Each structure stands twice: as C-alpha cells, then as structure tokens.
Amino acid sequence: MTEDTGALSAGHLNHYLPETDTFQPHQGIELICDLLSLSDYLTLWDRLRPRLPASATYTLPMVPIDSEVHIDEGPPVQTRRFDAGQVVA
Fold first, then answer.
1. Alpha-carbon torsion 67, 10, 13, 62, what sign?
2. Looking at the whole model, is its pTM more than 0.70?
3. What distance in Å separates the CA atoms of residue 29 and residue 34, rounded to the nearest whole number?
C-alpha cells in the first residue's frame, strides 16, 4: 500500500452499518487519491469560499452489494416515433 491508496476492509465497513454482514469477509473498498482539476477546485472554492477547508479528493470503485429485494418485471416499455419535420397539433 502506498500513501496514495488505502483499503477499507469488510470488518471496518460493517462496523458502521446496522447489519453486520453487508460486506463479506473477502470484500473491501479501495480508496484512490484522485486530484480534481484546477478548474473544479476553483468552482468549489467559489461556491464554498467561507467554509472550504483544506481537503483531498478520493475515487472509489463501484461496489456490488447483494440485495434481498425482489424486483418484479413490469409491462413492456412503449415506444413512440417522432417524424422529423412534422408538427403535431
């Protein structure tokens, strides 16, 4: 591990959740130090000027989380065709 990367283990992540088994023992999240561009920093500085403390930005990869919620399939999606150049009143 270098100073620019870090990892949060499953034990650390589950500690802050009401359920203690959201993340499996082999899962974790890797933190990657990812600097914003100068224009992004200046935009943040303009919007948060009186309250923007010294900070660093990090990127997190997407984390798949298993869910027990069942999603029912809905009806087919309807399509509509708009012909270019025609005005519909």
1. negative
2. no
3. 15
